[in-house]
Write a structure and sequence with these properties.
Layout (H helix, E strand, L loop, with lengths): L4 H24 L5 H30 L4 H8 L5 H21 L8 H9 L20 H8 L10 H7 L14 H21 L5 H15 L15 E2 L5 E2 L22 H4 L3 H20 L7 H10 L21 H27 L1 H15 L3 H9 L33 H6 L5 E4 L5 E4 L1 H6 L4 H9 L14 H16 L27 H7 L19
Antiparallel strand pairs: 1-2, 3-4
């Protein structure tokens, strides 16, 4: 029976449906640990691959290129009643013969049918540095980068991880080399393989398609990082470029030096010496840079190089005279842009993968920095531990915390101990009228609030300077009274040391240089001061 086209199509439909049910049942079971989630993802991915293969068989069966299904369907619709019964009994005989050949054979259950492709063990292939997909292993690429002409030496592994995305910062003249192309190919190959092993259910084709679509949109506009000129500028060895078109024979707006066109040199100057005297050394170099020619060598060599291209169009100049990356004519410009676009597209793909795995890249940097601080014994102990872990889930923000005493919460989100609450005096409430009757709990918070924005704003609204003279003042009426006393004492040139004593005020024994006799001696003669204590004999505050 299984040899017929209809039975094969029915079996494929049944298998696809069973795999769908198995996937739904698998997702009902929550995977707690990191390895369990990876294994679950790989099992589901393997089931999806099997469903794709069965679907391809169905498409081939329904296409019916050999006509087997049409022939079978025609045989199931005979012309007369006798022919229909004959066809039915013929198929019945075939079914009985098939069962006689396999006595005791039973149809497999759905669990048995999908066990081979779904519930089998999934091998997780990761290096020790990757720790089951938690980190990236870029040591080989770091070694290749530091030894390449476009790389930097020395460069620590942590610094390489921090700058691995900054491909646009590399020198432009080094990006067209074979070594840089090999480096990009190795980086892309590793990122694709890492993505396949860590996130099998996230299609890499979609990531690359989105990256290519954004690249094709930004490339004509010059918005690709590091390729604003689309690769048609001459490089100066530091990654920058100069315009490929010849500017007019005017002053360079950046350097303020004269720049001459190569095609106009024979019309403007009679000899190379006259040209060098008129342009100067800076002008000769600027003219070479504007034309995309090499700028190296001595002053005489630069002069002769510029004079040798006099009266020539860019396409008539020898290509050996152009700087690396300079576009001389339209054909060469198109060739350079094509090569630059190929390099920039690989950079865009690598950047897209690194952005997608940004969390793993950041975790890798943190792990490398942590391991650098561990001792040998700690590293060995960490290597012996199981690298499986339970991924932290975000706790529900609305979860209630048992806090009947309404104690302040600590750094862990739990109430602080009651003895610590009493020790810091957090049960004491201080209300400041200047701050809009805002309450401060604890003496420390109350004293600190005098220098904070809320109290400063309240003092500013009262048109009172927030100085030390108004410390501990929290009532508006008291602040206005102190303001009057403060400015009155300043007007008469007196200095008063204010105290919080309720019955008297303390005056300084130091003579006041602005008045004679001093305030203390004057009040002593008048019998208003106690010479032993320095306190006034009256219960009112004397404003001097």
């Amino acid at each position: 029976m299984a040899s017929t086209a209809l039975e094969q199509a029915r079996a494929s439909h049944e298998r696809v449906e069973r795999l769908e049910r198995a996937i739904a049942s698998e997702f009902k079971t929550e995977a707690v640990t990191h390895k369990a989630r990876l294994a679950q993802s790989h099992r589901v991915n393997r089931a999806l691959d099997e469903m794709v293969r069965e679907t391809k068989r169905l498409r081939s069966a329904y296409a019916d290129e050999d006509g087997a299904m049409r022939e079978e369907l025609a045989g199931m619709r005979p012309a007369g009643e006798d022919a229909a019964y004959a066809a039915f009994y013929a198929r019945l005989r075939d079914a009985r013969a098939s069962h006689e050949q396999r006595p005791g054979a039973l149809a497999p259950t759905p669990e048995e049918d999908v066990a081979a492709t779904f519930h089998a063990e999934v091998p997780l292939e990761f290096s020790g540095e990757e720790a089951s997909g938690r980190y990236l292993d870029l040591h080989a690429l770091h070694h290749a980068f530091t030894n390449a002409p476009f790389g930097r030496r020395p460069l620590e592994y942590v610094a390489f991880l921090a700058d691995v995305r900054a491909l646009d910062a590399l020198p432009r003249d080094k990006k067209f080399s074979r070594a840089y192309a090999d480096y990009l190919d190795r980086l892309l190959a590793y990122l694709r393989d890492f993505h396949r092993r860590v996130k099998p259910l996230v299609f890499a084709e979609k990531i690359e398609a989105d990256a290519r679509r954004e690249f094709e949109r930004d490339w004509p506009l010059g918005e690709v990082p590091g390729w604003a000129d689309r690769g048609v500028l001459a490089t100066d060895g530091s990654g920058g470029g100069v315009p490929r078109s010849d500017p007019p024979s005017e002053e360079d707006p950046e350097r303020r030096v004269p720049v001459a066109r190569p095609r106009d040199l024979d019309k403007s100057f009679a000899s190379a010496d006259a040209m060098a005297d008129a342009l100067g050394e800076a002008g000769v170099k600027a003219s070479l840079r504007a034309a995309g020619l090499k700028q190296g060598g001595t002053a005489e060599q630069r002069r002769d190089r510029l004079w040798s291209v006099r009266g020539k169009a860019p396409e008539q100049i020898d290509e050996a005279l152009f700087a690396k990356g300079a576009a001389a004519c339209d054909a060469r410009r198109a060739r350079f842009e094509s090569a630059a676009k190929a390099v920039a597209s690989k950079e865009a793909l690598a950047r897209a993968y690194l952005d997608h795995h940004a969390a793993a890249l950041d975790a890798t940097k943190g792990n490398v920095e942590k391991r650098a601080t561990l001792s040998l014994a700690e590293l060995e102990a960490e290597a012996e531990e199981d690298d499986d872990f339970v991924e932290e889930e975000e706790e529900d923000a609305e979860e209630e915390v048992y806090n009947p005493l309404r104690l302040p919460l600590g750094w862990d989100g739990k109430p602080i101990p009651y003895w610590l609450y009493k020790l810091h005096g957090l049960n004491l409430e201080f209300t400041c009228e200047i701050c809009g009757n805002y309450s401060y709990w604890g003496r420390r918070a109350y004293e600190r609030h005098f220098s904070e924005h809320r109290h400063q704003h309240g003092m500013k609204c009262l048109k009172i300077p927030n100085t030390k003279a108004f410390a501990e003042v929290r009532r508006r009426t008291e602040a206005r009274r102190e303001k009057t006393s403060f400015f009155f004492s300043l007007f008469f040139g007196r200095r008063r040391e204010r105290t919080r004593a309720p019955l008297a005020s303390t005056l300084s024994r130091r003579p006041d240089p602005l008045s004679y006799p001093s305030t203390f001696r004057t009040r002593s003669r008048e019998g208003m001061m106690d010479t032993r204590t320095g306190h006034g004999r009256y219960s009112m505050t004397h404003t001097l």
